[in-house]
Design goal:
2 copies of one chain form a homodimer.
Chain A: E1 5-8, E2 22-27, H1 32-41, E3 46-50, H2 53-57, E4 65-67, E5 69-70, E6 73-74, H3 89-92, E7 96-100, H4 102-112, E8 117-121, H5 126-135, E9 139-144, H6 153-166, H7 175-187, H8 191-195, H9 199-207, H10 210-216, E10 226-229, E11 232-235
Parallel strand pairs in A: 1-9, 2-8, 2-9, 3-7, 4-7
Antiparallel strand pairs in A: 5-6, 10-11
Helix pairs in contact in A: 6-7
EC number (chains A, B): 3.1.3.71
Pfam families (chains A, B): 2-ph_phosp
Protein name (chains A, B): Probable 2-phosphosulfolactate phosphatase
Chain lengths: 238, 238
Amino acid sequence: MARTIEVCLTPALLNLYAIEDSIVVVIDILRATSSITYGIDNGAEAIIPVANVEECLAYADKGFLLAAERNGEVVEGYDFGNSPFSYTKEKVGGKTVVLTTTNGTKAMHMARERAYQVVVGSFLNITALCDWLKTQDKNVLLLCAGWKDNFNLEDTLFAGAVVNVLRNDFKHSDDACVVAEDMYLMAKDDLRTYLHKSSHSHRLAALNIEEDVQFCLKLDVCKAIPVLRGDRLVALTL
Amino acid sequence: MARTIEVCLTPALLNLYAIEDSIVVVIDILRATSSITYGIDNGAEAIIPVANVEECLAYADKGFLLAAERNGEVVEGYDFGNSPFSYTKEKVGGKTVVLTTTNGTKAMHMARERAYQVVVGSFLNITALCDWLKTQDKNVLLLCAGWKDNFNLEDTLFAGAVVNVLRNDFKHSDDACVVAEDMYLMAKDDLRTYLHKSSHSHRLAALNIEEDVQFCLKLDVCKAIPVLRGDRLVALTL
């Protein structure tokens, strides 16, 4: 039977999908899964996603780097925030990072309860990710982390980009795949401009992180595919 | 303060929206809200949406017309099915119809618990609906009934058409509005062809109701706006 690829537009809809035999790709483009991809690619030993600053604190005194932001500022006492530029070789190589991310963590924790495997996707590793998915004999669910359980533009655009790459290798028939792919095809020549339409874009402008956004939309900066093992994201061994 | 317009892509996400001061437009293009619009426009006294054939049966012996389908066939003993062509003046004028529709009923019942007002939209009454919404001093939520709690293409396309008409009269910033409108703009010159991409289209082809689909995509056949009063949809008095 042909493998299927599906797009789940928000974690609130995940219960509608059978994922016991699926690889779930968690997508939180601005900025969690982009920073995670970049960090793992740069040799971080592991990245532990947590939902809030309080949970992050529980990992203090373990020798981990702690990453937490509030309103775009690094929380006092923490090592850095959520910018992908904090996840360089120099900063995270060989280290374990605890990363605070509400939407991404929720999506990963929900997915791991039932999925065959949970990996992390972003524009930064899209080709490596798609090449690997093609070699796996599994269905694929692209899980958009969204924004507070609702639909968002940037995660759906990335899902559409993956559907577009994998369209000949997987059966895809659900309506969310159709719209994600068509949105991506419409926007792909200038993703940044298209994202100016999004609500998150306004939030991000207020945070003054335009360079982060530009970076998160770059293609194929990384080869690594982060995979969830327990509560830790580590590099998938290819 | 400017009125807002928002798109809720499925009933499963309705709890994310504050609708206490909103007019909720329920959308189930193929075919519930199209048939309801046509029926009310053709003088039906009321249409009562119910979730399943069993619930429909509870209305037997009350002198109502009962509409129920299973697998595209009128259920034995019922007066007609869900085709809009059953909702003509001759058949429904002055009558009350009990209509079985899973997705549409669920959306309407969920909305009425909190919304200021619940009305029904379809391509058949889009201009009448939009003209009326412009005159109301209320926020608008376009609620796609979807398919089994998930996203579908046809309801989202209609939501996008409404956003496009109302874009200068309402503030719209949520990402679902953006994608619905862009999908609509991409597809509007040939909605039928675009819908061939949808999963529902395959289900519909199996039901052999191509004429119904064509009819449900017609613009402005009707002037009536069905409004929910208790469990009954009746014509809104303009």
